[in-house]
Automatic annotation (TrEMBL):
Gene3D superfamilies: 2.40.50.100
Record protein name field: Methylmalonyl-CoA carboxyltransferase 1.3S subunit
GO molecular function, one term: methylmalonyl-CoA carboxytransferase activity
Pfam families membership: Biotin_lipoyl
Keyword terms: Biotin, Transferase
EC number: 2.1.3.1
Source organism per UniProt: Blastochloris viridis (Rhodopseudomonas viridis)
Length: 128
């Protein structure tokens, strides 16, 4: 049975369609409603994904372990870093995650700035 519910998250109301499933009956395949369902709440569009930063390939890339927003960058080109030194901080879902150098060496490039959105696996800095 499809149920129309209103859920409030952080003070914002969202109308959702939920399929009720019980152990006694098999789930019926979803059939869209015959008439449009009015939805309350904001419509969010993330837009196109940002293009990955290009880098020269000098050194090995320290990549983002998760998608998020760069809060701060603690290094600049030419800096010497040691393994496990914090190089930047990412924020995802209101949680800050420190990113640490995977090896010691010299920072050859910084590919992100504070405020940049990054994808998982995107290069952040290069270290040689």
């Amino acid at each position: 049975m499809i149920r129309h519910l209103r859920i409030t998250v952080d003070g914002k109301a969202y109308d959702v369609l939920v399929e009720e499933v019980t152990g006694e009956q098999p789930a019926a395949p979803y059939a869209p409603p015959s008439a449009p369902v009015a939805m309350a709440g904001p419509v969010v569009s993330a837009g196109p994904a940002p293009a990955p930063a290009a880098f020269s390939g000098a050194g090995e890339a320290q990549r983002a372990p998760l998608a998020g927003v760069v809060v701060s960058v603690a290094v600049k080109p030419g800096d010497t870093v040691v393994a496990d030194q914090e190089i930047c901080v990412l924020e995802a879902m209101k949680m800050k995650t420190s990113i640490f150098a995977f090896k010691g060496g010299t920072v050859t490039e910084v590919l992100v700035n504070a405020g940049d959105a990054v994808d998982s696996g995107q290069p952040l800095v290069t270290i040689s």
